[in-house]
Structure formats: structure tokens, C-alpha cells
Amino acid sequence: MFPVRDADRTGPGHAHPERHNRLKGDLACSVHRGERLVRQQIEMTTGDRIWHVFNTERRTVWIGSNP
Prior knowledge:
The structure is a single chain. The chain is 0% helix and 52% strand. It is an all-beta fold and 67 residues long. Strands 1, 2, 3, 4, 5 and 6 form a 6-stranded antiparallel sheet that branches.
């Protein structure tokens, strides 16, 4: 995973909320660098997704691969 800082100052999911999906069950959270973070997907095109976790306190989004 790599950080994306201040990419969207309006908050996660603001521009196209229908394309931002909070995951459920075992996929809802992820531990990254010892912190438990919320995991979401962004739908880019049909079938293509970006998986990410975000830390709201640090205003940092970590983009990674499909678990």
C-alpha cells in the first residue's frame, strides 16, 4: 500500500457516493501498520475497483490490492 495525502479534502465518497462502497463482514476493516482502519472500494469502471483504507485523523488514504 502507498499513501495518498490530501487527495480529496471534502471527505471520502463526496464526489460520486454511488461509486464508493464500504465493505462488510471480514472485509470491512483492515490492520495497516498496527492500526485497524475502515476499508472501502471505489468503482472506477464496470468490474474495476480500487481498494483502500483511510485514517481520518491523519487524513491519509492507503491504496492497495484486493485482499
